[in-house]
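Please check our next protein.
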Amino acid sequence: MIRWSVCTLLSAALLAGTVQAQNKGKEVEVDGLKSKVPETWKGVETNSQFRAAQFTIPKVDGDVKDAELVVYFFGKGQGGGVDANIKRWQQQIMPPEGKKIEDVMKKDTFKVGDVNVTEIELQGTYEAPTFGGKQKPEKISNARMIGVVFESPNGPYYFKLVGPAKTVEANKKGFDEWVKNFK
């Protein structure tokens, strides 16, 4: 019995090592800095010259759709400053009845190496921006958005994670680790 238990534990340890070695997320490069996304995030081919990277984040039980992460880059010094982007992101979220956008927003600033980073979180009904008026805006009720302005020397870069609130919440830790691990 003891021999079987030891063999089982060794097999489990070897299998865990193999799985851990295979759990490598895609590496994203931003202005010469690199960080790997969580392995459950699925890379998507970008459909715009301004999308430097794009991922689908699988939905959690109870949510009806996946979340999406896009890394935007509009060119060195382009895309507006921190305040302009916060305002733009705020306009994409309608807070719950009886609340103001400021009531459903959290803001944090920190550094990743020498890079200033501003991160906001918003909750409410998300309405995706449309371009050219050719499509009906996508709406997600009970949504959550995390927006990041990554002020690297040749940036800024903008990260936008949006989707059902439970799915975004379940991936918040992985998102924060990814952002803070750019080196």
User: Anything to note?
Assistant: The chain is about 25% helix and 35% strand. The radius of gyration is 19 Å.
